[in-house]
Amino acid sequence: MKRSIALLVLWAVTTTAPALGEQSFSSRHHDFRLETIAEGLEHPWSLAFLPDGALLVTERAGRLRMIGQDHRVSAPVTGLPDLVASGQGGLLDVQLHPDFDNNRLLFLSYAHKNRQGMTTRVARAVFDGTALNKVEVIFEALPRSGTSRHFAGRMAFDGSGNLYIAVGDRGEMDRAQDTGDDAGGVHRITLNGAPAEGNPFLSRPGFNDTLFTYGNRNIQGMTRHPETGEIWSHEHGPRGGDEINILRAGHNYGWPKVTYGIDYSGLPISGKTTMTGVTDPLHYWDPSIAPSGMAFYSGERFPQWRNDLFVGALKQQKLVRLKLDGETVTEEEDLLTGLGERIRDVRMGPDGALWLLTDSSDGKLYRLAPAD
What are the catalytic residues? Predict the structure, then answer.
C-alpha cells in the first residue's frame, strides 16, 4: 500500500472560559474528563475548527453557529443556501478547505427541496467571520425523491484537495446498485464540482462520472486516515449490519445485495453477507449501534490511543474506540456508556483533545481531554 503522511494544520487553541460542567471517566488505557463547552444547540450535526480557536457548528434545523473561545454561541451565520429541514434532512456537514487560512472557503452539505422532490446538495462559500458570501451549489444528487430519509451528507478532503461526498440510498434500497443514479454512493469532485481526475467511471457508459463507490446504504461518518491518507467511512445498516469501510475507487460495497442486517419488519433482505465482486466491510456491528461521526486520534495527549478510531453511536448512546493493526480491529472498547446522550459527531481537535456533539433539542458540545 502506498503510504502518505497527512499534513496537519496546527492551531493554537486556548480556553479562555471555564467549562460549563465536567465529568470524570476511566477507560482501559486512559483516564479522562468530559467538559461541557456549550449547550442549547438544536440537533447539532457537524463541527469544524477555525484557525483562531473558535468552532463552527451546524444545526440540522438550518442554522450555522460559531462558538468562541469564551464558549458563547453566536447568532446564526447569515447567507446560508436555501435548504429544507425535513425528517433526517436539514443542514448537515461542514468542511473547511485545507487552505482555509488563505482562501476562507468552506463547504456545506444539506437537504434541498423543489417540485421534483428532495435531495442532497453541497454548496461552496466564503466565510468572512459572520456571513457566507459567494455561495455556489457545486453538487446535487439526482434524481430527486419524495422521501425524507438517508440523505447521508458526510464529506472529507483527500490529500489532493478533492472532496468526497456521501449520498444515501434515500430509503429506496435498489438505487444503491444503480450506477446511473447518484443515490447510495460516494462522489469525488473538484472544488468547482467537476468530476475529479482519476475517478473510476469517467466516460464509462451507464456510470455517473462523479461516482467513486456505490452500494452504500447511508454513510454517517467519514474521515481521512492520518498515515495512509485513505478515506474511511461507516454506514448505517438496517436492523444490524452497521459497517466500517475503506473507500476505494470503483468498489461496490454491496447494499442491498449483501448485508449483515435484516429489514425493520424482521424479514431478511438478501440472506447473503458476502458475494463475488462486493467489498466486505472491515468491521461490522450486529445489533446496530447507529454509528454517526468518526475520527482517528492523532494527537499526543492520549499516547495509548494514537491512531485509534473513534465512532459515535446514536442508538446505543456511546463512544466506541477501535484499535487497529493495519485494517484489522484488534480491540474494541465502549466509552461514555452512562452519559445517556446520542453522539452525533466526533472530531480530532487541534488541541489534542476529542470533541463531540450530541443529537437532541438541547444538544451539547463536549471536549474529551486527559484527566490531568
Answer: 150
